[in-house]
Design goal:
alpha/beta; Rossmann fold; 11 strands; about 25% strand
Length: about 250
């Protein structure tokens, strides 16, 4: 079976040499998507590309009475920072082509680093802190791990990563390209917005100049989480919703 095709529709050329690309595609939770949206709202970014695929649902995100493609690329040339963001509830068959698209775009744009994120559940009996979740790092290379350590982010020594972040890590390791996946401790059934704010704070340490007001982010992230969940639920056909939610 042929792999689904995902393409970039470039709107503007950007100079990102030596910069950072952030994966804001939700694949295993919403923390990275919330963090990316928070950074876009906090920083001066430009809409530089659309991401499209015949496999995407027919969906337009309407904001201020104007349509938006549900998968987009934003960038800040001054900070050498770019973000892939999406409100789509991607099918697992799209994880690999989406990850490969990010890698190819990062290489073509001369970015030095890709940063993604994933949830890390608390182990049984471990003390949980839903108000200030701990963030750990996994790196595709020793150089990536050093970057995380220099930013004050502790390594995750064992465990598993799945979804788009896993593919980015594995491909980055094979290509000797720096990928850092931030793992945030999450409490089951607790809101994702605090985890998203924790990821945004860690991202700011890895992307110089991308400062974040964490207090403001927490308020904004809660709104973003509700919006993302609403959009994602609207992508599920009514009959499927009844099966899932009862």
């Amino acid at each position: 079976m042929a792999e689904p095709i995902i393409e970039i529709r470039k709107l503007k050329n950007v100079n990102l040499k030596g910069g950072v690309l952030v994966d804001g595609f939700p694949s295993v939770g919403l923390a990275n998507a919330i963090a990316s949206e928070c950074l876009i709202h906090s920083l001066k970014t430009e809409f530089v590309a659309m991401i499209d695929s015949p496999a995407f649902p027919p969906l337009s995100i309407v904001r201020n009475a104007m349509p938006n493609c549900p998968a987009r690329v934003y960038a800040n040339e001054e900070l050498k920072l770019a973000m892939f963001v999406s409100e789509l509830n991607l099918d697992a068959s799209l994880f690999r082509p989406a990850a490969n698209l990010m890698l190819e775009w990062a290489l073509h744009s001369n970015c030095d680093l890709i940063v993604s994120a994933a949830d890390l559940p608390y182990e049984e009996g471990e003390a949980a802190d839903a108000l200030s979740p701990q963030v750990y790092a996994v790196g595709s290379t020793l150089h990536a791990l050093r970057k995380a350590a220099e930013a004050g982010i502790s390594p995750a020594l064992s465990g598993t990563v799945s979804g788009i972040p896993a593919i980015l890590l594995n491909e980055g390791s094979w290509r000797n390209y720096d990928v850092i996946v931030l793992l945030v401790k999450v409490v089951r059934d607790a809101p994702d917005f605090r985890a998203g704010a924790a990821i945004a704070e860690a991202l700011a340490k890895l992307a110089p100049g991308a400062k974040c007001d964490v207090v403001a982010l927490l308020k904004e992230a809660e709104v973003i989480e509700k919006t993302l969940k609403k959009i994602r639920s609207e992508q599920v056909p009514p009959s499927t919703k009844e099966q899932i939610y009862g």
